[in-house]
Prior knowledge:
The structure is a single chain. By secondary structure, the chain is mostly helical. The protein folds into two domains: 17-78, Winged helix-like DNA-binding domain superfamily/Winged helix DNA-binding domain (Arc Repressor Mutant, subunit A, Orthogonal Bundle); 84-228, GntR ligand-binding domain-like (Four Helix Bundle (Hemerythrin (Met), subunit A)). 64% of the residues lie in helices and 3% in strands. It contains ten helices and three strands. The protein has a three-stranded antiparallel beta sheet. Helix 1 packs across helix 3, helix 5 packs antiparallel against helix 6 (133-148) and helix 5 (111-129) packs antiparallel against helix 8. It is globular, with a radius of gyration of 18 Å. The two termini are 31 Å apart.
Amino acid sequence: MVQPLLPEIPRSAAMTTQEYAYGRLRNAVMVGALRPGTALTFRGLAEQMGLSPTPIREAVRRLSSEHAIEVLGNRRLRVPEMTPGRFEELVQLRIALETHAAARAFPWISDIAIDRLAGIDACMDVALAGHDLDGLTRLNQDFHKMLYGLNPDQAAMPLIESIWLQLGPFQRRAIEHLAGITAADHHKEMLGAMRGRDLPALCAAIEADVHDGSVRAGRMMLAQAPSHR
Length: 229
């Protein structure tokens, strides 16, 4: 079985092999490098990362508990398929958690923070123009993490990242089908709302960002899937 390529991640000298295995496999799921339904093996993952099976098993155990990898019989692994009901649940959770996180971060939004977020948004424009989907996904996550992380007491990011992790493989497929869908740039709407210190407009832009683009494409894909007709 040919294993799909896992994007490399930075590896510091202090990073253990278990941390590296988990981080690299988690990143591959998060950015959608592994498609829904992709079959994996412990041996194939170990060979690709140049590691023994032990750290791979631990990484898979953690990702299985996060519903990002399914452990099947006979040491078989699979990236979970998406269903319409699960997709809608995850989308609604994204909206609830991310608008909550934005509201809690709102008092700490400064002009300096807005300028940094605008810089990330500009890099997203470049990635989109170059059809760099891995880069676009990472930058999008960086934008939202920076915004929500302005709250010094934030506790929502682990929950939000769990949702991103479960949506990643399917949303990447949806992004690849976005050519026929025209969407507004809701990140610029978010920046405008932040500059105007308008919390309702910021939350509305976040909700529109979640619903637009890849979510609309995802719903179309699920509706057209043979098992859901």
